[in-house]
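A quick word before the example. In earlier lectures we treated sequence and structure as two separate objects. From today on, think of them as two lines of the same record. Here is Secreted protein written that way.
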Amino acid sequence: MRDTADRARYQTVPQQPDDARSLLAALLALPGRGLRSVIRSAAMTPGRLTVIAVGLIVLTALAALTASFAVRDRSDTLTDLTERREPLAAAAQQVYRALSDADATAASAFLATGEEPEELRQRYENDIAMAGSSLSKAASDPAATPRMTAQIDVISQQLPVYTGLVETARTNNRQGFPVGASYLREASALMRTVILPAAEALYRIDTERVAEQQDDAGGFPVVAMLFVIALLAALIATQLHLKRLTNRVLNVGLVMATLAIGVGVLWSVAALTVQSVYIGNGKDDGTEQVDLLVQARIAALKSRADETLTLVARGDGGAYEEEFVRLSGRMAGDDGGGGWLADVAADATDGTPLASEVALAQESAEKWLRAHAKVRELDNAGDYAEAVQLAIDVGKPDGAAVAFVALDDHLRAAIEEARQAFHDDTTAASQVLTLLAPGWIVLGIIAALGIGAGIRERLREYQ
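And the structure line, produced from the sequence above:
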Protein backbone atom coordinates (compact mmCIF):
# COMPACT_ATOMS: atom_id res chain seq x y z
CA MET A 1 0.00 0.00 0.00
CA ARG A 2 2.81 2.43 0.91
CA ASP A 3 4.62 1.72 -2.38
CA THR A 4 1.41 2.43 -4.28
CA ALA A 5 0.89 5.77 -2.44
CA ASP A 6 4.52 6.84 -3.04
CA ARG A 7 4.22 6.12 -6.73
CA ALA A 8 1.03 8.18 -6.91
CA ARG A 9 2.62 11.17 -5.17
CA TYR A 10 5.68 10.92 -7.42
CA GLN A 11 3.52 10.89 -10.51
CA THR A 12 1.75 14.15 -9.41
CA VAL A 13 5.02 16.14 -9.25
CA PRO A 14 5.46 18.07 -12.57
CA GLN A 15 8.63 17.17 -14.38
CA GLN A 16 10.70 19.57 -16.56
CA PRO A 17 10.27 18.39 -20.15
CA ASP A 18 13.46 17.42 -21.89
CA ASP A 19 12.45 19.30 -25.04
CA ALA A 20 12.07 22.61 -23.07
CA ARG A 21 15.59 22.29 -21.67
CA SER A 22 16.90 21.55 -25.11
CA LEU A 23 15.17 24.60 -26.60
CA LEU A 24 16.60 26.91 -23.90
CA ALA A 25 20.09 25.52 -24.40
CA ALA A 26 19.78 25.99 -28.15
CA LEU A 27 18.74 29.60 -27.72
CA LEU A 28 21.66 30.31 -25.39
CA ALA A 29 24.03 28.73 -27.83
CA LEU A 30 22.86 30.71 -30.83
CA PRO A 31 25.20 33.75 -30.38
CA GLY A 32 28.21 31.51 -30.00
CA ARG A 33 27.24 29.43 -33.02
CA GLY A 34 26.65 32.57 -35.05
CA LEU A 35 30.04 33.98 -34.10
CA ARG A 36 31.79 30.72 -34.91
CA SER A 37 29.95 30.57 -38.23
CA VAL A 38 31.09 34.10 -39.09
CA ILE A 39 34.67 33.26 -38.14
CA ARG A 40 34.63 30.12 -40.28
CA SER A 41 33.06 32.03 -43.15
CA ALA A 42 35.59 34.86 -42.85
CA ALA A 43 38.40 32.36 -43.23
CA MET A 44 37.39 32.07 -46.90
CA THR A 45 37.41 34.92 -49.39
CA PRO A 46 33.65 34.97 -50.21
CA GLY A 47 32.76 35.00 -46.55
CA ARG A 48 35.34 37.68 -45.84
CA LEU A 49 33.91 39.85 -48.62
CA THR A 50 30.40 39.38 -47.23
CA VAL A 51 31.53 40.46 -43.77
CA ILE A 52 33.25 43.50 -45.27
CA ALA A 53 30.12 44.45 -47.21
CA VAL A 54 27.89 44.19 -44.13
CA GLY A 55 30.36 46.20 -42.06
CA LEU A 56 30.62 48.93 -44.70
CA ILE A 57 26.83 49.19 -45.06
CA VAL A 58 26.37 49.45 -41.28
CA LEU A 59 29.09 52.09 -41.05
CA THR A 60 27.49 53.97 -43.95
CA ALA A 61 24.14 54.00 -42.17
CA LEU A 62 25.75 55.27 -38.97
CA ALA A 63 27.69 57.99 -40.79
CA ALA A 64 24.69 59.18 -42.81
CA LEU A 65 22.35 59.19 -39.82
CA THR A 66 24.74 60.98 -37.44
CA ALA A 67 25.56 63.58 -40.10
CA SER A 68 21.86 64.13 -40.83
CA PHE A 69 20.99 64.40 -37.14
CA ALA A 70 23.86 66.84 -36.53
CA VAL A 71 22.69 69.09 -39.36
CA ARG A 72 19.07 68.89 -38.23
CA ASP A 73 20.10 69.74 -34.68
CA ARG A 74 21.95 72.84 -35.92
CA SER A 75 18.95 73.89 -37.98
CA ASP A 76 16.63 73.45 -35.00
CA THR A 77 19.00 75.46 -32.83
CA LEU A 78 19.00 78.35 -35.30
CA THR A 79 15.21 78.25 -35.61
CA ASP A 80 14.85 78.30 -31.83
CA LEU A 81 17.32 81.16 -31.68
CA THR A 82 15.28 83.42 -33.97
CA GLU A 83 11.80 82.33 -32.88
CA ARG A 84 12.18 81.96 -29.13
CA ARG A 85 15.53 82.73 -27.50
CA GLU A 86 16.24 86.16 -29.03
CA PRO A 87 12.63 87.40 -28.61
CA LEU A 88 12.80 86.41 -24.94
CA ALA A 89 16.04 88.37 -24.57
CA ALA A 90 14.34 91.31 -26.28
CA ALA A 91 11.46 91.04 -23.79
CA ALA A 92 13.93 91.12 -20.88
CA GLN A 93 15.60 94.16 -22.45
CA GLN A 94 12.20 95.81 -22.80
CA VAL A 95 11.51 95.27 -19.09
CA TYR A 96 14.84 96.91 -18.27
CA ARG A 97 14.21 99.86 -20.60
CA ALA A 98 10.58 100.44 -19.62
CA LEU A 99 11.39 100.51 -15.92
CA SER A 100 14.30 102.90 -16.45
CA ASP A 101 12.13 105.19 -18.56
CA ALA A 102 9.32 105.06 -16.00
CA ASP A 103 11.72 106.26 -13.31
CA ALA A 104 13.00 109.10 -15.50
CA THR A 105 9.49 110.10 -16.59
CA ALA A 106 8.12 110.12 -13.02
CA ALA A 107 10.88 112.51 -11.98
CA SER A 108 10.24 114.79 -14.97
CA ALA A 109 6.49 114.89 -14.26
CA PHE A 110 7.17 115.76 -10.63
CA LEU A 111 9.07 118.90 -11.66
CA ALA A 112 6.19 120.29 -13.73
CA THR A 113 4.46 123.25 -12.10
CA GLY A 114 0.69 123.32 -11.93
CA GLU A 115 -1.19 120.41 -13.47
CA GLU A 116 0.89 117.38 -14.34
CA PRO A 117 1.56 117.21 -18.13
CA GLU A 118 -0.72 114.61 -19.67
CA GLU A 119 1.96 113.35 -22.09
CA LEU A 120 4.35 112.58 -19.23
CA ARG A 121 1.66 110.87 -17.20
CA GLN A 122 0.68 108.76 -20.21
CA ARG A 123 4.28 107.86 -20.93
CA TYR A 124 4.79 106.74 -17.32
CA GLU A 125 1.67 104.56 -17.40
CA ASN A 126 2.66 103.08 -20.77
CA ASP A 127 6.09 102.22 -19.37
CA ILE A 128 4.62 100.41 -16.37
CA ALA A 129 2.18 98.51 -18.60
CA MET A 130 4.98 97.63 -21.03
CA ALA A 131 7.19 96.42 -18.20
CA GLY A 132 4.37 94.19 -16.94
CA SER A 133 3.57 92.63 -20.32
CA SER A 134 7.25 92.13 -21.20
CA LEU A 135 7.90 90.57 -17.80
CA SER A 136 5.05 88.10 -18.46
CA LYS A 137 6.63 87.16 -21.78
CA ALA A 138 10.06 86.72 -20.18
CA ALA A 139 8.47 84.56 -17.47
CA SER A 140 6.89 82.29 -20.12
CA ASP A 141 10.28 80.77 -20.97
CA PRO A 142 9.85 76.98 -20.48
CA ALA A 143 13.62 76.69 -19.98
CA ALA A 144 13.75 79.33 -17.25
CA THR A 145 16.42 78.67 -14.63
CA PRO A 146 16.00 79.26 -10.88
CA ARG A 147 18.22 82.31 -11.22
CA MET A 148 15.92 83.79 -13.86
CA THR A 149 12.84 83.00 -11.80
CA ALA A 150 14.39 84.74 -8.79
CA GLN A 151 14.91 87.98 -10.75
CA ILE A 152 11.36 87.85 -12.13
CA ASP A 153 9.99 87.37 -8.61
CA VAL A 154 11.91 90.40 -7.32
CA ILE A 155 10.52 92.63 -10.07
CA SER A 156 6.98 91.30 -9.68
CA GLN A 157 6.99 91.85 -5.93
CA GLN A 158 8.69 95.25 -5.82
CA LEU A 159 7.10 96.96 -8.82
CA PRO A 160 3.73 97.50 -7.03
CA VAL A 161 5.65 98.98 -4.10
CA TYR A 162 7.41 101.38 -6.46
CA THR A 163 4.23 102.51 -8.19
CA GLY A 164 2.59 103.01 -4.79
CA LEU A 165 5.41 105.29 -3.67
CA VAL A 166 5.18 107.27 -6.92
CA GLU A 167 1.43 107.74 -6.47
CA THR A 168 1.98 108.91 -2.89
CA ALA A 169 4.59 111.37 -4.11
CA ARG A 170 2.21 112.70 -6.78
CA THR A 171 -0.63 113.09 -4.28
CA ASN A 172 1.52 115.04 -1.84
CA ASN A 173 3.00 117.13 -4.64
CA ARG A 174 -0.46 118.13 -5.92
CA GLN A 175 -1.39 119.27 -2.41
CA GLY A 176 1.82 121.26 -2.06
CA PHE A 177 3.37 119.06 0.64
CA PRO A 178 7.20 118.97 0.44
CA VAL A 179 7.20 115.39 1.68
CA GLY A 180 6.28 114.39 -1.87
CA ALA A 181 9.89 114.86 -2.93
CA SER A 182 11.01 112.42 -0.22
CA TYR A 183 8.56 109.79 -1.45
CA LEU A 184 9.79 110.26 -5.02
CA ARG A 185 13.43 109.85 -3.98
CA GLU A 186 12.48 106.75 -1.99
CA ALA A 187 10.71 105.32 -5.04
CA SER A 188 13.69 106.08 -7.26
CA ALA A 189 16.06 104.50 -4.72
CA LEU A 190 13.94 101.32 -4.72
CA MET A 191 13.98 101.27 -8.51
CA ARG A 192 17.74 101.78 -8.76
CA THR A 193 18.91 99.52 -5.94
CA VAL A 194 16.45 96.61 -6.19
CA ILE A 195 14.23 96.54 -9.29
CA LEU A 196 16.64 97.67 -12.02
CA PRO A 197 19.48 95.40 -10.83
CA ALA A 198 17.06 92.46 -11.04
CA ALA A 199 15.94 93.57 -14.52
CA GLU A 200 19.55 93.95 -15.62
CA ALA A 201 20.43 90.49 -14.27
CA LEU A 202 17.46 89.00 -16.15
CA TYR A 203 18.58 90.69 -19.35
CA ARG A 204 22.17 89.51 -18.86
CA ILE A 205 21.07 85.90 -18.33
CA ASP A 206 18.98 85.94 -21.52
CA THR A 207 21.77 87.62 -23.48
CA GLU A 208 24.29 85.02 -22.31
CA ARG A 209 21.93 82.22 -23.36
CA VAL A 210 21.61 83.77 -26.83
CA ALA A 211 25.41 83.83 -27.11
CA GLU A 212 25.67 80.22 -25.91
CA GLN A 213 23.12 79.10 -28.48
CA GLN A 214 25.01 80.93 -31.22
CA ASP A 215 28.17 79.11 -30.19
CA ASP A 216 26.33 75.77 -30.20
CA ALA A 217 24.99 76.44 -33.71
CA GLY A 218 28.49 77.22 -34.96
CA GLY A 219 30.23 74.31 -33.23
CA PHE A 220 32.06 71.48 -35.01
CA PRO A 221 30.07 68.20 -35.43
CA VAL A 222 32.81 65.95 -34.03
CA VAL A 223 30.89 62.65 -33.76
CA ALA A 224 29.44 62.85 -37.25
CA MET A 225 32.81 63.76 -38.73
CA LEU A 226 34.52 60.82 -37.00
CA PHE A 227 31.99 58.39 -38.49
CA VAL A 228 32.38 59.92 -41.96
CA ILE A 229 36.18 59.81 -41.80
CA ALA A 230 36.07 56.21 -40.59
CA LEU A 231 33.76 55.31 -43.49
CA LEU A 232 35.98 56.96 -46.09
CA ALA A 233 39.04 55.21 -44.66
CA ALA A 234 37.20 51.88 -44.70
CA LEU A 235 36.07 52.37 -48.32
CA ILE A 236 39.59 53.23 -49.46
CA ALA A 237 41.09 50.30 -47.52
CA THR A 238 38.51 47.93 -49.05
CA GLN A 239 39.32 49.08 -52.57
CA LEU A 240 43.05 48.62 -51.96
CA HIS A 241 42.35 45.12 -50.60
CA LEU A 242 40.28 44.21 -53.67
CA LYS A 243 42.99 45.58 -55.95
CA ARG A 244 45.55 43.26 -54.37
CA LEU A 245 43.05 40.40 -54.47
CA THR A 246 41.80 40.75 -58.05
CA ASN A 247 44.43 42.95 -59.74
CA ARG A 248 41.62 45.27 -60.86
CA VAL A 249 42.32 48.97 -60.40
CA LEU A 250 38.74 50.14 -59.88
CA ASN A 251 35.59 48.74 -58.33
CA VAL A 252 32.75 50.78 -59.82
CA GLY A 253 30.35 50.21 -56.93
CA LEU A 254 32.85 51.17 -54.24
CA VAL A 255 34.03 54.16 -56.27
CA MET A 256 30.41 55.31 -56.51
CA ALA A 257 30.03 54.90 -52.74
CA THR A 258 33.24 56.85 -52.10
CA LEU A 259 32.16 59.64 -54.45
CA ALA A 260 28.75 59.85 -52.73
CA ILE A 261 30.34 60.25 -49.30
CA GLY A 262 32.91 62.65 -50.74
CA VAL A 263 30.10 64.81 -52.14
CA GLY A 264 28.51 64.81 -48.69
CA VAL A 265 31.78 65.92 -47.09
CA LEU A 266 32.36 68.73 -49.60
CA TRP A 267 28.73 69.86 -49.35
CA SER A 268 28.91 69.84 -45.56
CA VAL A 269 32.18 71.76 -45.44
CA ALA A 270 30.85 74.42 -47.81
CA ALA A 271 27.47 74.71 -46.05
CA LEU A 272 28.93 74.79 -42.55
CA THR A 273 31.53 77.36 -43.59
CA VAL A 274 28.88 79.67 -45.05
CA GLN A 275 26.66 79.05 -42.03
CA SER A 276 29.49 79.97 -39.65
CA VAL A 277 30.06 83.20 -41.57
CA TYR A 278 26.39 84.13 -41.27
CA ILE A 279 26.35 83.27 -37.55
CA GLY A 280 29.46 85.38 -37.04
CA ASN A 281 27.87 88.28 -38.90
CA GLY A 282 24.72 87.89 -36.82
CA LYS A 283 26.83 88.14 -33.69
CA ASP A 284 29.08 91.02 -34.84
CA ASP A 285 26.42 93.13 -36.56
CA GLY A 286 23.47 91.97 -34.47
CA THR A 287 23.64 90.75 -30.88
CA GLU A 288 26.88 92.49 -29.91
CA GLN A 289 25.68 95.79 -31.36
CA VAL A 290 22.31 95.37 -29.65
CA ASP A 291 24.02 94.82 -26.33
CA LEU A 292 26.10 98.01 -26.65
CA LEU A 293 23.07 100.02 -27.76
CA VAL A 294 20.95 98.68 -24.90
CA GLN A 295 23.65 99.64 -22.43
CA ALA A 296 23.82 103.11 -24.00
CA ARG A 297 20.04 103.50 -23.88
CA ILE A 298 19.76 102.41 -20.26
CA ALA A 299 22.61 104.74 -19.32
CA ALA A 300 20.78 107.59 -21.08
CA LEU A 301 17.54 106.82 -19.23
CA LYS A 302 19.29 106.65 -15.87
CA SER A 303 21.12 109.88 -16.67
CA ARG A 304 17.83 111.54 -17.52
CA ALA A 305 16.43 110.49 -14.13
CA ASP A 306 19.57 111.85 -12.47
CA GLU A 307 19.16 115.14 -14.30
CA THR A 308 15.61 115.65 -13.05
CA LEU A 309 16.22 114.25 -9.56
CA THR A 310 19.07 116.72 -9.12
CA LEU A 311 16.51 119.49 -9.60
CA VAL A 312 13.96 117.75 -7.36
CA ALA A 313 16.55 117.62 -4.56
CA ARG A 314 16.96 121.45 -4.72
CA GLY A 315 20.62 121.82 -3.86
CA ASP A 316 21.00 118.38 -2.30
CA GLY A 317 21.46 116.42 -5.51
CA GLY A 318 25.23 116.21 -5.79
CA ALA A 319 25.16 112.41 -5.87
CA TYR A 320 22.69 112.44 -8.77
CA GLU A 321 24.87 114.85 -10.76
CA GLU A 322 27.95 112.71 -10.15
CA GLU A 323 26.12 109.68 -11.48
CA PHE A 324 24.91 111.67 -14.49
CA VAL A 325 28.50 112.56 -15.40
CA ARG A 326 29.63 108.94 -14.99
CA LEU A 327 26.79 107.35 -16.95
CA SER A 328 26.65 109.92 -19.74
CA GLY A 329 30.40 109.58 -20.16
CA ARG A 330 30.09 105.83 -20.60
CA MET A 331 27.24 106.33 -23.04
CA ALA A 332 28.66 109.04 -25.30
CA GLY A 333 31.80 110.52 -23.76
CA ASP A 334 32.04 114.14 -22.69
CA ASP A 335 30.85 115.59 -25.98
CA GLY A 336 28.68 112.86 -27.56
CA GLY A 337 31.52 111.43 -29.65
CA GLY A 338 32.77 108.69 -27.34
CA GLY A 339 31.55 105.87 -25.14
CA TRP A 340 29.40 102.98 -26.28
CA LEU A 341 27.92 105.01 -29.13
CA ALA A 342 31.39 105.49 -30.59
CA ASP A 343 32.05 101.76 -30.32
CA VAL A 344 28.87 100.96 -32.24
CA ALA A 345 29.60 103.64 -34.85
CA ALA A 346 33.11 102.23 -35.41
CA ASP A 347 31.75 98.75 -36.17
CA ALA A 348 28.66 99.78 -38.15
CA THR A 349 28.96 99.53 -41.93
CA ASP A 350 28.90 102.93 -43.60
CA GLY A 351 25.68 103.78 -45.38
CA THR A 352 23.53 101.29 -43.48
CA PRO A 353 20.42 102.34 -41.53
CA LEU A 354 22.22 101.32 -38.33
CA ALA A 355 25.12 103.67 -39.02
CA SER A 356 22.70 106.49 -39.84
CA GLU A 357 20.69 106.04 -36.63
CA VAL A 358 23.83 105.87 -34.49
CA ALA A 359 25.16 109.08 -36.08
CA LEU A 360 21.87 110.83 -35.32
CA ALA A 361 21.99 109.48 -31.76
CA GLN A 362 25.47 110.94 -31.33
CA GLU A 363 24.24 114.34 -32.53
CA SER A 364 21.31 114.20 -30.10
CA ALA A 365 23.62 113.16 -27.26
CA GLU A 366 25.86 116.16 -27.99
CA LYS A 367 22.86 118.52 -27.90
CA TRP A 368 21.60 116.96 -24.68
CA LEU A 369 24.95 117.30 -22.94
CA ARG A 370 25.12 120.98 -23.95
CA ALA A 371 21.57 121.54 -22.69
CA HIS A 372 22.37 119.76 -19.43
CA ALA A 373 25.39 121.99 -18.88
CA LYS A 374 23.12 125.01 -19.34
CA VAL A 375 20.57 123.55 -16.87
CA ARG A 376 23.27 123.12 -14.25
CA GLU A 377 24.57 126.60 -14.91
CA LEU A 378 21.10 128.13 -14.36
CA ASP A 379 20.40 126.02 -11.26
CA ASN A 380 23.76 126.82 -9.69
CA ALA A 381 23.16 130.52 -10.38
CA GLY A 382 19.88 130.40 -8.46
CA ASP A 383 17.57 130.54 -11.49
CA TYR A 384 15.74 127.35 -10.51
CA ALA A 385 12.52 127.97 -12.44
CA GLU A 386 14.37 128.60 -15.71
CA ALA A 387 16.54 125.54 -15.13
CA VAL A 388 13.44 123.38 -14.65
CA GLN A 389 11.84 124.75 -17.81
CA LEU A 390 14.97 124.09 -19.84
CA ALA A 391 15.10 120.55 -18.42
CA ILE A 392 11.49 119.42 -18.99
CA ASP A 393 9.81 121.79 -21.48
CA VAL A 394 9.35 119.96 -24.78
CA GLY A 395 8.57 123.28 -26.41
CA LYS A 396 12.17 124.49 -26.13
CA PRO A 397 14.09 123.31 -29.23
CA ASP A 398 17.43 123.70 -27.46
CA GLY A 399 16.17 122.17 -24.19
CA ALA A 400 17.27 118.95 -22.53
CA ALA A 401 13.86 117.28 -22.94
CA VAL A 402 13.80 117.62 -26.73
CA ALA A 403 17.37 116.39 -27.11
CA PHE A 404 16.80 113.44 -24.78
CA VAL A 405 13.61 112.32 -26.55
CA ALA A 406 15.42 112.48 -29.90
CA LEU A 407 18.34 110.49 -28.46
CA ASP A 408 16.02 107.82 -27.08
CA ASP A 409 14.14 107.56 -30.38
CA HIS A 410 17.34 107.10 -32.39
CA LEU A 411 18.68 104.53 -29.93
CA ARG A 412 15.41 102.60 -30.17
CA ALA A 413 15.59 102.65 -33.97
CA ALA A 414 19.25 101.59 -33.91
CA ILE A 415 18.43 98.64 -31.64
CA GLU A 416 15.69 97.53 -34.04
CA GLU A 417 18.10 97.75 -36.98
CA ALA A 418 20.69 95.64 -35.16
CA ARG A 419 18.04 93.10 -34.17
CA GLN A 420 16.91 92.89 -37.79
CA ALA A 421 20.51 92.30 -38.90
CA PHE A 422 20.77 89.44 -36.41
CA HIS A 423 17.48 87.95 -37.60
CA ASP A 424 18.42 88.20 -41.28
CA ASP A 425 21.86 86.64 -40.82
CA THR A 426 20.62 83.84 -38.55
CA THR A 427 17.74 83.02 -40.90
CA ALA A 428 20.19 82.89 -43.82
CA ALA A 429 22.43 80.55 -41.79
CA SER A 430 19.48 78.23 -41.24
CA GLN A 431 18.47 78.28 -44.91
CA VAL A 432 21.97 77.19 -45.95
CA LEU A 433 21.34 73.86 -44.17
CA THR A 434 17.85 73.30 -45.59
CA LEU A 435 18.67 70.37 -47.92
CA LEU A 436 21.79 69.06 -46.22
CA ALA A 437 20.06 66.80 -43.66
CA PRO A 438 17.91 64.87 -46.18
CA GLY A 439 20.83 65.06 -48.61
CA TRP A 440 22.97 62.94 -46.28
CA ILE A 441 20.24 60.29 -46.13
CA VAL A 442 20.07 60.13 -49.93
CA LEU A 443 23.86 60.02 -50.26
CA GLY A 444 23.99 57.29 -47.61
CA ILE A 445 21.49 55.17 -49.58
CA ILE A 446 23.51 55.67 -52.79
CA ALA A 447 26.70 54.70 -50.97
CA ALA A 448 25.08 51.57 -49.48
CA LEU A 449 23.78 50.50 -52.90
CA GLY A 450 27.23 51.08 -54.40
CA ILE A 451 28.87 48.97 -51.68
CA GLY A 452 26.37 46.16 -52.22
CA ALA A 453 26.82 46.23 -56.00
CA GLY A 454 30.61 46.43 -55.82
CA ILE A 455 31.04 43.51 -53.42
CA ARG A 456 28.40 41.46 -55.27
CA GLU A 457 30.41 41.68 -58.49
CA ARG A 458 33.43 40.21 -56.70
CA LEU A 459 31.36 37.47 -55.08
CA ARG A 460 30.09 36.32 -58.48
CA GLU A 461 33.64 35.41 -59.40
CA TYR A 462 33.59 32.67 -56.72
CA GLN A 463 30.32 31.06 -57.83
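Notice the following. The chain has a mean pLDDT of 85. We will return to this example when we discuss secondary structure assignment.
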